[in-house]
Amino acid sequence: MIKTTGVLHHTVSVSDTVVSKKFYEDVLGFTTIQHVPQIDMVFMRCGEDFVNLTKSKTPIRSNNNDDFLVHNAYKIEVSKYDHAKKFISDLGIKIIHEEHRYEGIFHGKQFYFHDPDRNVIEINALEKVTDGFSDEQISDDDYKVFPNLKT
């Protein structure tokens, strides 16, 4: 086994690094470390974490329609949630799902929307991290892990 110590970065597939760079800077407040045109990749910082935007050589389609299970989640301060939601709405970006989750691992208010390539972004006003669902909940076929999930 390799004992990893954390996540260095995650990579977001995009169709146009220039358009996506502007979106992630202007909408999510990321800062650009470096754009490397030879490989069409943008290295960015989000707080103390790193995200790379990379031009995809294949069509980008991680979810159908407004499904949101495949997504990248970004934390905000709990007190900033309403402002963040209004900011996204004022930009004309459709919020595809919202909930205040008290079950599972990540508790707090969260909403989801698409970036220019329809990658799903979650904004999470994280209140606490827990041990997750109980074994009884997971093994119960009638229990709805996410009752508000569109299927």
TrEMBL record:
This is VOC family protein. It comes from the Bacteria. Residues 6-126 form the VOC domain. InterPro entries: Glyas_Bleomycin-R_OHBP_Dase, Glyas_Fos-R_dOase_dom, VOC_core.
